[in-house]
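User: We ran a pulldown and think these components assemble together. Before we commit to crystallization trials, I'd like a predicted model of the whole complex to look at. Sequences follow.
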Amino acid sequence: MEFTEPALEYAEIWPLIVVFGVACLGILAEAFLPRGRRHVVQVALAAVGLLVALVGTVLVGTNLDEVADGEARGLIGGAGSVVVDGPTVFIWALVLVASLMGVALFAERRLEAGVSAFSGQAAALPGSDAERKAQGLDHTEVYPLLMFAVGGMLLFPASGDLLTMFVALEVLSLPLYLLTGLARRRRLLSQEAALKYFLLGAFSSGFFLYGMALVYGYAGSMDLGAIDAAVRNDAANSVMLQIGLGLLLVGLLFKVGAVPFQAWTPDVYQGAPTAVTAFMSAGTKIAAFGALLRLLYVGFGADRWTWQPVMWVVAILTMLVGVVLAVVQTDVKRMLAYSAVAHTGFLLTGVLGVQASGELAEGQVTSLQAVMFYLATYSFATIGAFAIVSLVRDSSGEATAFDRWAGLGKRSPLVAAAFAFFLLSMAGIPLTAGFVGKWAVFTVAMSAGAWPVVVVAIASSIFAVYFYVRHIRLMFFDVPEADAEVASVTAPSLLTSGTIAVGVLGTLVLGLVPGPLLQLAADAGQFIR
Amino acid sequence: MDDFPILSVLVALPLVGALVVPFLKGALAKQAGIGVSVATLALAVVVAAQYELDGGMQLTETYDWIPAFGVHFALGVDGLGLLMVLLTALLVPVVLLASWRETETAVDGNEQGSPTAFVAWTLALESLSLAVFLATDVFLFYLVFEATLIPAYFLIGGFGRVGRSAAALKFLMFQLAGGLILLIGVIGLYVVSAQAGSPSYLLSDLMALDIETEAGRWLFVTFFIAFAIKAPLFPVHTWLADTTGKATPGTSVLLVCVLDKIGTFGMLRFCLGIFPEASQWATPLVIVLALVSIVYGAFVAIGQDDVMRLIGLTSLSHFGFIVLGIFVFSTQGGTGSILYMVNHGLGTAALFLVAGYLVSRRGTASIRELGGQEKVTPVLAGLLLVAGLATLGLPGLSPFISEFLVIIAAFQYAWYVGAVAVTGIVLAAIYVLWMYQRTMTGPTADVVTRDQDLGVREIAAVAPLVAALVFFGFYPIPLMDAADPYVGDLLSHVGITDDPPEVTAPAAAETAEEGEY
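Assistant: Here's a predicted model for the assembly, 1046 residues in total across the polymer chains.
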């Protein structure tokens, strides 16, 4: 048997290579640099690496060749395993922007009096002498971990076959499991969250793997294009296909936090260091939705009558469970976690709104365009909101209980106003980005005839408005009880305040002039099969 | 001068004011607020001067905004829009002047928000409301329609009596629920217009659209529910009295006299404009709801002990009249409704503000505890009486004319509809006069002293309203000139011509008589 050397399309996939390369460099730096220098070097490496990758992504995006009569742009590279097309590039850019904001939050050291928010020595038992000794230490392994996670996030939506998708899934998940357990304060909560996330995540990966095997059994290939061809030719034994697809969906829906696989979300969001929560909530969601879209639209696009009803049910349940449980929360991070679940439902509403391009009018919004735009709006709001959560503190660190937030609007009007703005965007109030995003996903679902889902989505939005506005009321109009301890805002360095500013600006601009980004998402075209 | 985007400037001016005012302190902020709102009023008058009375959309501006959604930044003014713009522009300076001290005094020992915030939110509300009345793109309309709720929420939640933050939440929940139902309709319109070829939200494109009957009816329902909550109409009115009971009088004026008009404005422009068939299909139910609102609103108002709640509930009755006039589909009804919208704005604003003066003097809004004001504060009592008489439709004051037109139209539609509507007038006399009797006449309480009569600022704030009430009571022609062409266009779009006067004489006699002429 002759061995042919695979040819890699370096010109298109180099942003991916940069991110992985910088992650490896980070490990070397961690091993060889003296402790005192590591923080600066690691932050610089990560930030520069991400920036270069972002610039690269933009360059790659502008130079993609048109294929399929201009309906799509890009190529299938890496011997069929990496697809660099318009949607890939768009999602890469989103992931990289979210990661840059994440790095800025990771590097914040002013809030904890000169050290980062990560545990000095994660292996030390909580309450032990070893932990006390490690208290002044700074954990810098988080940056290579972040870079690996980003690498996985970039590869995940670009995977051309199921095997690559699985590898990317693991590469993005494993660092996140670790990062979740690294909180400096509330160690036990953080470790518990990491363990839960790991166990459930490993379990769902197993489902994904089993699904892959069944689909391979059906189609005779891992390749998404080949699976699509098999589905179109209606090969025998479609039961195997359906079970396989179901199991694949379990793995992906777990990652996006859809009902009934949402149980990990509140615990992990609450237990993880807030900077990690911010990065993860945006990054994972972008990447996982990218992968979900590619799997469903490319691999199983011809079989959409099978999966669309499933998605109807999942979307409806996700929205309802998300908003109903969010209403009864008394902790900001948990409330935002359940709101993230609800947003997953709204995004799924967009996903199930797919129509063949022939069914759409000239210039009508496509589901891909809508979902990608929603991901952008959601990322800015969620990262900004968690960044603000990290500022609101009392004597024991971050104060996430609702009663601590009472009257914050009087003590720190600017921060409270920014938080209120993010909440309004998540609630989908007009003149914020969230509204335009919601409009887009609801519209594509309505066009595809999924009006029951849209009606449920609207009903959930009403619930959602209630808990968002209740929090605004808490901040601005409620007066804290006389002897209760209240949280105040700790002045952050430029890193966090800059991130919040970017979030506010993004939410505002996308709310007022969403045209250019929508056009960009439209120009990205379709997935390449 | 022709290309000058005067409507955009009209919308932008108060918005700029709202952004600048937070950087000013104390009295300067209030002065700046009044300055900006008076300038806006002047600009609105210029718009009115440029408006030609032959109807249609005028001074239009259209810019592409979100091409992917077929959304335009499109403004234009027609007869209806012009009257609403003038009403809004007049009421805002009045409210700011009347609320000059509102934010300084704690009510019920309850701390108030800063006066700067009050001015800024009021100006923001004005800008968004003007945009609502000028928007000729449904998406733009929806955006500003929803966005008005944010300043309104902060105005209710930040200023007023104890329990206001709960009232603000209730207000917002009701309004946003309506708004989200409307969102279904707005999205549906996009789908319908995309199926027809190219997605566009321009009002003119949508009006030309041939919407399938069933789809049209569903979309109509979403629009109507949203506007019924806004107006409000029975049975979705419950937020109204809670809100006006807790908010400051100034805020109540902005809510009831400006924001609520968006409800009936929307029914005219969007329900009738885009869904003429469905509007006629829904008429029987809408008329029943309107009649229930008229009678029920009046009865509930009679039973109130809180002055501010009472005035809020009178509006329920009045909005019943407006909706009734819109949905009987005749020239008298349509013109009457539009006039009613203006006159209700003037009369109810005066009533709210004067009652607010009274409440702030006595520290209570409970009618039972008030009384005997007449002898010691005659100016206050007199103004309350004038505003009250306007509300109950006394001839010589402008609301009479509009109420009269609506009732004529109701009788033309069906005698029993007219008969029920007429009871509204009787009940209005009860709630206004009884309220006046219990608050102003009777033994004077010791706490009331002669120096508590209205000051110059307070009188100056209400004077324009009273002047307008009297002026349009005797000379309503300017209002009719603006409303009539609009109503004519609308009814011909809906496909209705007024019935010719019925001749009851036998046919033979008729021809014989004709010969004699």
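Residues 303-523 of chain A form one domain. That may be worth checking against your pulldown data before setting up trials.

User: Thanks, that helps.
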